[in-house]
Design goal:
By secondary structure, the protein is α/β, with parallel strands linked by helices. It is about 25% helix and about 35% strand. β2 and β3 form a beta hairpin.
Length: about 350
């Protein structure tokens, strides 16, 4: 009887001990599972917020003007918040180099990504900062002449002007009045052509194409240049304020509806009627037909669809007192739309200090 009571007295502590051990094991298992879940969540958040920071940086560099920053070059400091899916990125641009004489400007651009996804209890929102050094690259165009025609050019009559003499003040050195490949070359009256030389002839069509340095396939098919307006489906601007120099892409053959300024990218043929005028750059895939007393002050390149393998007839300039004149100021204003921030090679970091 005494032995039985002793065994019963030992059973209770053993059960209690076993329950304590099991509780500890269960708590440890729960803790391990919780830590693993937290570790996985932290890892996912790290990847997600890194993507937010990087996306914000790339969007700002590629589409800075869409965030309301149009100064060229950029100001000493610019900042904005880029709203993204499941978070945002605070992007800050700071000028770190300024050489106004050489027109060189350097910038440090940092992007601080913050996730807005719900986090585990006791865990702070994920954040990450990346940065890149970039330079301001001004838009530029290789201007060979007042009118460069890759399909050659024929001029009827001695009236009008095909001039490579700069119409800007102060004037840049003159360029050729007309530039063409030897075949089919320039035919007709030479009196309207003036410049240095009045008529520039390249031995082959390919030499003329190379000299223009225009990526026409990229512009037409790969959005190498982002237009402000594409017609169709867009419509022609109702007005052109003094500081409005848009890039307008006209798809197919087109007749210019009126005067304007900026950069015209025409994938087909372009016809200019009446007394319409254009200030800036005109790039035409097909031929440019000028009816009436038109004026283009800037630079014209036509016949660019030759680069795409198309066969085009010789271009023609009809009768009339039409004027096609090189103007470096108008070219610069048109090309300003092509200026952009360009990241330096191997100048991207993901350990930028965060304060």
């Amino acid at each position: 009887m005494t032995r039985l009571r002793t065994e019963r007295g030992l059973a209770l502590p053993m059960v209690l001990l076993l329950m304590v051990v099991l509780s500890v094991l269960i708590a440890a298992a729960i803790g391990a599972a919780s830590n693993e879940a937290r570790a996985n969540a932290n890892q996912e958040s790290t990847v997600d917020v890194f993507a937010l920071a990087e996306t914000g940086l790339e969007l700002f560099i590629a589409k800075r003007d869409s965030f309301g920053f149009t100064a060229a070059p950029p100001a000493a400091s610019e900042s904005t918040r880029v709203m993204l899916t499941n978070g945002y990125a605070d992007v800050v641009l700071t000028q770190v180099r300024q050489d106004t004489v050489a027109a060189r400007y350097g910038y440090a651009i940092r992007s601080h990504g913050v996730s807005t996804l719900a986090s585990l209890s006791g865990t702070a929102q994920a954040e990450r900062t990346v940065a890149e050094y970039a330079a301001w690259q001004s838009g530029a165009m290789t201007v060979l002449s007042g009118w460069t025609s890759l399909t050659g050019l024929n001029k009827n009559g001695n009236s009008g002007s095909l001039s490579g003499i700069d119409g800007c003040s102060p004037a840049a050195p003159p360029v050729a009045g007309v530039a063409v490949p030897e075949n089919p070359g320039y035919t007709g009256k030479t009196g309207p052509a003036s410049g240095n030389p009045p008529i520039l002839t390249y031995s082959t069509q390919q030499q003329a194409i190379n000299a223009t340095n225009i990526d026409w396939n990229g512009m037409v098919n790969n959005n190498a240049v982002q237009p402000d307006i594409t017609i169709p489906p867009g419509s022609w601007p109702t007005s052109f304020p003094a500081d409005y120099w848009p890039v307008i892409k006209l798809v197919g053959d087109y007749s210019l509806p009126g005067s304007g300024q900026g950069t015209l990218i025409v994938t087909g043929n372009l016809t200019i009627n009446g007394s319409a005028s254009w200030n800036g750059v005109v790039l035409v895939g097909g031929n440019l037909t000028s009816n009436g007393n038109n004026t283009v002050e800037g630079a014209v390149v036509s016949g660019l669809n030759i680069e795409l393998g198309q066969l085009l007839p010789q271009g023609s300039v009809g009768n009339g007192t039409k004027t096609f004149q090189y103007n470096s100021c108008n070219v610069a204003k048109a090309m300003a739309k092509q200026s952009q921030l360009v990241g330096y090679t191997n100048a991207w970091v993901d350990n930028w200090p965060t304060y």
